[in-house]
Amino acid sequence: MTAYDFVVRNGTLIDGTGAPRRAADVAVKGDRISAVGAPGSLRCDSEIDATGLIVAPGFIDVHTHDDTALIDNPGMAMKASQGVTTVVCGNCGASASPYTRAEINHFLSLLVKKPENIAPSFAGFAAKVEAAGPALNGAFLVGHSTLRMSAMGEDLMRPATTAETAEMRELLDASLGEGAIGMSSGLFYPVARAATTDEVAETALPLGKWGGLYTAHMRDEADDILAAMDETFEIGRRAGAPVIVSHHKTSGRGNFGRMRETLPKFEDAMKRQEISFDVYPYVAGSTILRKEMLDRAERTLVTWSDTMPSASGRDIADVARELGCTPHEAADRIHPAGAIYFMMDEADVQAAMSHPGAMIGSDGIPFDTHPHPRLWGTFPRVLGHYCRELGLFPLEDAVRRMTAYPAARFRLTGRGTVRAGAYADLCLFDAATVIDTAPSRSRSAPRSASIAFSAMARRSGVTASPQAAARAACCACRSCRPSRAPAVEGRAPSAFVAAGTFHALVTLLRLDRKRGDRAGFEALERDRLAGLLAEAVRTILDALERLVDLGDQLAEAVARAQLQGAVGLGGGAVGEIGLGQTFFLHVLQRLVRLLDEVALPLQELLAEVLLLHRVHELFAFGRPVVVRQGDRHRNRSLLTRGPGAGARSI
Ligand SMILES: [Zn+2]
Predict the structure, then answer these.
(1) For 344-373, what is the mean pLDDT?
(2) pLDDT per position as a tens digit, 428-465
(3) Ligand 1 centre from 291 Cα, in Å?
């Protein structure tokens, strides 16, 4: 028996620090990387052949609204398929906890779809996330607007009183004690617009005590952006907290080119306090539909509408024509709704993204019917388009902006670097082919998603207290055993949740990447495989249950997959290297054997297989380049014959 659970061999390591790539093997044991060595120096019974691939730390998506997506959609395919292993949630002032009201405020509905997913305390919310067992790690900010709504109800068009500010401060303090990593604000949004600088700064005071950070969707990202930057920096200084400016942009045609003002201003302020910012790689933004933003945008696409669902995915001008009114009136009539606004300059986006202070965050909104492509495409787009195609920065620097740098800025101890002792969050991709498939790039011919990823997220426990934080439970699969992690520098670290399932799937995918690996695939110990697959199947069935619950929204999911040119469950790997084609098949084949072994009634088995197959078809549907008719047909025949399963027929 070897000392490791598995070794990633023959890959090219980019360790996240910005250091030049090098050939190296990486050994994993439990939830940690146990060794990084010269090629061929680390051996294990289970090996993942990474020939031709970059081995990098799992990406950290520093700007997300995935708070409750982690609960409702624990597979997190939209992020896992990009190589993301950690999401930072609770941005722009909106978090699902601590929220002490029963009804979900309209603003909060951006990220919370089910009342049972909100919680009056951060610890309560973290427990819900942990119970859902998502595939990725989560780190959580507390939203200033959420605090406002808790303390002030619907009476939000005024500054908070001293007593209300004190209540907000106490809620934040308690949350930080329970493992939240900081506070976000969204003074741009109506629910927080009336908040004064003093209100936010005084609410944020506990950040200094807990080592938390302050992220800001600033009050203004257009004409008054410089004043908004001053306000943001002041709040950070007064709270004694590092500042992270969210999705830095200068929006509206009149503000094109103003990175020439904002970036030097950042540099100047960075001399005096810790400041950084995140960027998403698109010239369009997305948020709720607001009339006043229509004039600023070159073009506006509706992403969802409760009042008029058929408006989703269409230009507001188009919707207005149908309704026989102006776009402004249309916005009123289809409210509540969300939108994509084309309102930035490409040169500004590139200037911001390549600035030394920039990290990458998707800002994707997970529940939109027709979401902004950034939800599925951010990381492959930076790697493929901006790094490889445009040469905006070296690959090592692109990876650094997605890993070690954000880990340091967000205080995610032990993450973001491939080195012995670090958490085993890993991502494998093909630097020559990785690209996003967002339709905004090429509407006529969406390319296949080609990131060859493997996100190996490991469970390390949700933090309910500094003590609890220090406990890190390994993932539940059989290849890992519970382990204890050392206490982390005395303060409650971020709440991390991850499932053990994912690396199992990755192992399967990777081993099957080349036909020649069939033997190795078969040689995996039966017991270990059974354990891994049982987990995989359980996760998929859980996901299915949720899908079925969604009923006719399934059709919308297909439409979304089409729009994105994206790939589905276990997703990104599917493209050019042909992994996803076989992904479900292998799960199916193994499921057949496994369930046969445990003597599950044939009918139940069939039902499950058919259900899985249906989902496979659903997700395959959105990948015209990848899945041709013939493939799908072949898949179906494989399903009934089960290659490698002997003469078994179902
Ligand atoms: Zn925002």
Answers:
(1) 85
(2) 888 888 877 644 332 222 222 223 233 333 322 222 22
(3) 17
Task: Give me the residue label for tokens 């996760």.
Answer: 539
> Considering the chain, what percentage of its residues have pLDDT values greater than 70?
66
Average pLDDT over residues 207-236: 96
Going by C-alpha positions, the residue among 443, 448, 473, 476 that lies closest to residue 461 is: 473
501 closest CA partner among 520, 479, 484, 522: 479
Task: Compute the distance from residue 107 Cα to the ligand 1 centre, in Å.
Answer: 12
Model-wide pTM > 0.85: no
CA of 379 to the centre of ligand 1 (A): 18
Task: Count CB-CB contacts under 10 A for residue 153.
Answer: 13
Measured in angstroms, how far is the CA atom of residue 251 from the centroid of ligand 1? 13
What confidence tens digit (pLDDT) does each residue in 530-577 have? 455 555 566 556 555 554 444 334 344 444 443 443 333 233 322 222
Q: Are 151 and 164 in contact (CB under 8 A)?
A: yes
Of the given ranges (109-113, 406-410, 489-493), which has the lowest mean pLDDT? 489-493
pLDDT for 623 equals: 26
C-alpha distances out from residue 104 to 155, 169, 188, 189, 335, Å:
14, 21, 20, 16, 16
How far is ligand 1, taken at its centre, from the CA of residue 143, in Å?
A: 11
Measure 286 CA to ligand 1 centroid, in angstroms.
Answer: 9
Domain ranges across the chain: 1-59+373-509, 92-245+623-650, 520-620
Calculate how far, in angstroms, residue 102's C-alpha sits from the geometric centre of ligand 1.
Answer: 24
CA 460 to chain centre: 18
Residue range 92-245+623-650 in CATH 3.40.50.960? no
Superfamily of domain 1-59+373-509: Urease, subunit C, domain 1 (2.30.40.10)
**Phi/psi of residue 286, each to 5°?**
-150, 135
Position 480 pLDDT exceeds 70: no
- Residue ranges of alpha helices (H) inside 324-471 are 327-334, 346-353, 374-381, 395-402, 404-409, 466-470
Neighbours of 346 (CB within 10 A): 10
Whole-number Å distance between alpha carbons of 582 and 572: 13
Find the 15 Cα to ligand 1 centroid distance in Å: 30
